Amino acid sequence: MAQLDTLQKLEILADAAKYDASCASSGTVKRDSAGQSKGIGSTEGMGICHSYAPDGRCISLLKILLTNSCTFDCHYCINRRSSNVRRARFTVEEVVNLTLNFYRRNYIEGLFLSSGIIRDPDYTMEQVVAVARSLRQDHGFRGYIHLKTIPDADSGLIRQAGLHADRISINVELPTASGLSRLAPEKSSTRIEGAMQSMKGDIEDGHDARKRFRSAPDFAPAGQSTQMIVGADSANDGDIITTANRLYGRFNLRRVYYSAFSPIPDASAILPLRRPPLMREHRLYQSDWLMRFYGYSPGDVRDATNDAGMLRLDIDPKLAWALKFRGRFPVDVNRAPRDMLLRVPGLGVKAVDAILAARRWRRLRLADIGRLTVSLAKVRPFLLTEDWRPSALTDRADLESLLTPRAEQLELFAA
């Protein structure tokens, strides 16, 4: 490997990390260095744009690979062993210094670190953990750290990562075991899920220890997450939804991230030639939101798919479900339970909670609902208010066309 300076390495390894979507920095404990005799950093500040927390804060993370060299040869990965890409590798000290220097300049408020496999999984995991350990113990870094772990590494090393990181990621890579076996034959879904189960147990043990002993260290306080590549194999959206729900249930994940497959140079012949529409990735995130916050079951979301098991790209899954089950509508905003109000297209969780609070004091009218939603036209066919009844609107044969956004030609020189 040619000798590269730190800036050249950063250019290569930051670009190589862009395919990993699971870098949100939400859910960790509040921690800062104010009033401390030693330490640097905070998990509460604001920085330049990179990712977003649930409360809308813009979070900036230094997102890099320790190295893009890898002993594995996964077909979908640009950094695979047989790929003809420029290679680079950071030392532990270089990553530590970059993180601290970027933080002092207010460029970032945390680190997202992943890596290709160097030598073997255990050696690589040791290097990743060494970065986090040095930041925490040698420099008192109190910012956010997210480590991407290696399932094949020793469980003790992965546990050490949880002692220093806010969040741990263990990627399942693909939605089905058959897809993983075909596109990444050196990886095992059994080993991946075994590592996730072990991490779940360690996180639960850490929470229990914190309840009993104040001096017990925080163990991965932001939990664990995973990522699935969408469109690299034949799995449809129904398969992906089923897998995501199973992962949430079995491993108490904070998030499942979806990353649309991106064609890579010198790609394997078994990969698709074109990337899936980015809207497919967006619809999967919407379906994930419905299951996590709106009370939809995986079966409900699959009911919103077409005959091929794919979510529609022209309308969101919530509207697709409502159009398919029109017999459940309209619902009375002044009487319907919360779970049914959450099924009304155009009403979000905050709007429903506001409706429930307001209707304790008076009967709600259509204008009241209009102040709580972006599109009153989307809501009207599915609800009743004190002064509004949709009559035959809910059952109109052309209702779908009325609610589907019209495609518009953009103007190159529009103001």
From TrEMBL:
Q: Which Pfam families match?
A: Radical_SAM (PF04055)
* GO molecular function list: catalytic activity; iron-sulfur cluster binding; metal ion binding
**Gene3D superfamilies recorded for this chain?**
Aldolase class I (3.20.20.70)
Question: InterPro entries attached here?
Answer: Aldolase_TIM, DNA_rSAM_put, Elp3/MiaA/NifB-like_rSAM, Endo/Exo/Phosphatase_dom_1, rSAM, rSAM_sf, RuvA_2-like
Lineage, top-rank taxon, reads: Bacteria
Keywords noted in UniProt: Iron, Iron-sulfur, Metal-binding, S-adenosyl-L-methionine
* Coiled-coil features, chain-numbered ranges: none
Domain Radical SAM core span(s) in chain numbering: 54-300
Q: Which cofactor does it need?
A: [4Fe-4S] cluster
UniProt xrefs under NCBIfam families: rSAM_link_UDG
Q: Under which name does UniProt file this protein?
A: DNA modification/repair radical SAM protein
